[in-house]
Amino acid sequence: MRIPRVLVAAAVLLAATIPAFASAQVESTPIPAPKKPNFSSMEFMIGTWTCSTKSARRPAAYVTTTTYTMDQTGYWIDGTSTTQPTKWISQKLSTFDKITYDSDTHRWVDVSYGDGGAYGLSFASGWSGDKISWHDVSFAAGPDIKSQTDNVVTKVSNNKMTSSSSFTEAKTGRVVSVTGVCTKH
Predict the structure, then answer these.
(1) Residue 7 domain-assigned?
(2) On the CB side of 159, how many CA atoms lie within 13 Å of its CA?
């Protein structure tokens, strides 16, 4: 019985590699867990807030209720928001935020998503006195809005925050201010 050369070559190759597999070291060092964020500057947010937000191009403010909790892992603050319908908001809207601190890049991160495919990613370098400035890195200009400013949040007290930002309309070039006031229950 004659053995084909291909099988002989395969057997030689296999015999040559078996000792390499047998002596290969399998990595057993656990991957280090990232350090948990220091939320001390943000812990005042934990709880339920009612926010009134007014855009200069709308006749009245809209109201949002947001509840912030610490997630069970200790790496995120979770925010759940509900916006009630108005004349220009046809249905109740829900949005969700996850806030953490990235110690590698030394910045706060807010990942958001919500009804209707809403999404966002914002960074902030941290508090400067009583203010924090969130920069939306996911913003893309569109047919309605050409540009926007950062959202500056001011901590008035442990029970009150204000916010201000603006955007520029694409067609008219008009700058529209957006202001908010949030109070904790």
Answers:
(1) no
(2) 2
Cβ neighbors of 80 (< 8 A, separation 6 or more) are 66, 67, 94, 95, 96
Whether the CB-CB separation of 179 and 163 falls below 8 Å is answered with yes
- CATH number, domain of 53, equals 2.40.128.20
In a domain, 145, yes or no: yes
CA distances from 32 to 29, 85, 94, 146 (A): 9, 46, 35, 43
Number of domains present in the structure of the chain:
1
pLDDT digits (tens, 9 = 90+) for 82-139: 999 999 899 999 999 999 999 999 999 999 999 989 999 999 999 999 999 999 999 9
Query: Do the beta carbons of residue 152 and residue 135 sit within 8 Å?
Result: no
Residue 138: count other Cβ atoms within 10 Å of its Cβ: 10
| Amino acid in the structure at residue 6 | V
